[in-house]
């Protein structure tokens, strides 16, 4: 971090992504506070249900619990600072704080990308080899897949942030975004950004597109297996086990890819896509998995009656 301070003349950035009049900002504060509280309560409730009820001690629900924990982390990286800035006139973040946020957004988002690929593989094994499912997706493999997801994502984030620490920031300090992300920092740098941009591009292709390819191939295999099922009831049941995961993938990758493929302009569309994958999706995931699953809905009702 000391090397970064020596390079950067600008001590802090100004986050202008959601700047508006006082009344509008007050309404936005209430809106995002409600969203954040729903995110925290929904994901914590799902974590409690999955861990407390023995009938959910299966690979699918183990991964679901990990996804809930990740959504809590991912949302907590950006939303508290967003809420603070909506109440503040300065809306500033230190260069060190900005780089820390870049790292954590990259790490938690990258882990979620890996975990969604792992969950797609889990669904493929469950549908293609139901009799061997427990043997194949054993506890050691599940723990290894989750640990590997965290490890790969944090390594990817570390490589990107180490290269980004060499960027110089001399005069420009206004970020037309509500959080710090690498693409938003490039226009502010007075040094050559090609090394950081190339690193980001390569890691995005290998990490995010690699995971997306794994998900895509898993669902091709799943679809092929389902089409070979003779009974309509069997096909419907197989499709229903994948619908929640597929919905989560569409929300996460749809908005995330559109955000990073768009030119960095600070446009309203760019902000909407960023809000979708970093603020809205973590709130929706517990709803997606509970509303489409009778067992989870019943367990949530039992838990709520128990404590309330």
Please summarize what this structure is.
Keywords: Cell membrane, G-protein coupled receptor, Membrane, Olfaction, Receptor, Sensory transduction, Transducer, Transmembrane, Transmembrane helix. The chain has 308 residues and is an all-alpha fold.
Helix content: over 70%
Biggest sheet strand order reads: 2-1-3
Cα-to-Cα separation, first versus last residue: 47 Å
**Secondary structure: number of strands:** 3
Protein name: Olfactory receptor
Keywords: Cell membrane, G-protein coupled receptor, Membrane, Olfaction, Receptor, Sensory transduction, Transducer, Transmembrane, Transmembrane helix
Subcellular location: Cell membrane
Domain G-protein coupled receptors family 1 profile: 42-289
Fold and architecture overview:
With 308 residues, this protein is mainly alpha-helical. The protein contains eleven helices and three strands, in the order H-E-H-H-E-H-H-H-E-H-H-H-H-H. The protein has a three-stranded mixed sheet. The longest helix has 34 residues. The radius of gyration is 21 Å and the shape is globular. The N terminus is likely disordered.
What are its keywords?
308 residues, mainly alpha, three-stranded mixed beta sheet, 11 helices, globular, transmembrane
């Amino acid at each position: 971090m000391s090397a970064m301070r020596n390079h950067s003349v600008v001590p802090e950035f100004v986050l202008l992504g959601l700047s508006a009049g006082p009344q509008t900002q007050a309404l936005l504060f209430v809106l995002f506070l409600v969203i954040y509280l729903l995110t925290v309560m929904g994901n914590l409730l799902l974590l409690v249900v999955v861990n407390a009820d023995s009938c959910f001690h299966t690979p699918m629900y183990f991964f679901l619990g990990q996804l809930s924990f990740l959504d809590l982390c991912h949302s907590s990286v950006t939303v508290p600072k967003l809420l603070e800035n909506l109440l503040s006139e300065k809306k500033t973040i230190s260069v060190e704080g900005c780089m820390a946020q870049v790292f954590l957004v990259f790490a938690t988002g990258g882990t979620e990308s890996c975990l969604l690929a792992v969950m797609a593989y889990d669904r493929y094994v469950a549908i293609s080899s139901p009799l061997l499912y427990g043997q194949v997706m054993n506890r050691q493999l599940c723990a290894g897949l989750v640990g590997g997801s965290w490890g790969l994502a944090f390594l990817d984030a570390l490589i990107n942030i180490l290269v980004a620490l060499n960027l110089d920031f001399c005069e420009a300090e206004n970020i037309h975004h509500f959080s710090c992300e690498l693409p938003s920092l490039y226009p502010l740098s007075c040094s050559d950004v090609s090394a950081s941009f190339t690193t980001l591009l390569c890691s995005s292709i290998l990490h995010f597109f690699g995971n997306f390819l794994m998900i895509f191939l898993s669902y091709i295999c799943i679809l092929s297996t389902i089409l070979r099922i003779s009974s309509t009831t069997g096909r419907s049941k197989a499709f229903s086990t994948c619908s929640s995961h597929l919905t989560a993938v569409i929300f996460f990758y749809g908005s995330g890819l559109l955000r990073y493929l768009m030119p960095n302009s600070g446009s309203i569309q760019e902000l909407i896509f960023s809000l979708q994958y970093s603020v809205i999706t973590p709130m929706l995931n517990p709803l997606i998995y509970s509303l489409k699953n009778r067992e989870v809905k019943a367990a949530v009702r039992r838990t709520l009656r128990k404590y309330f």
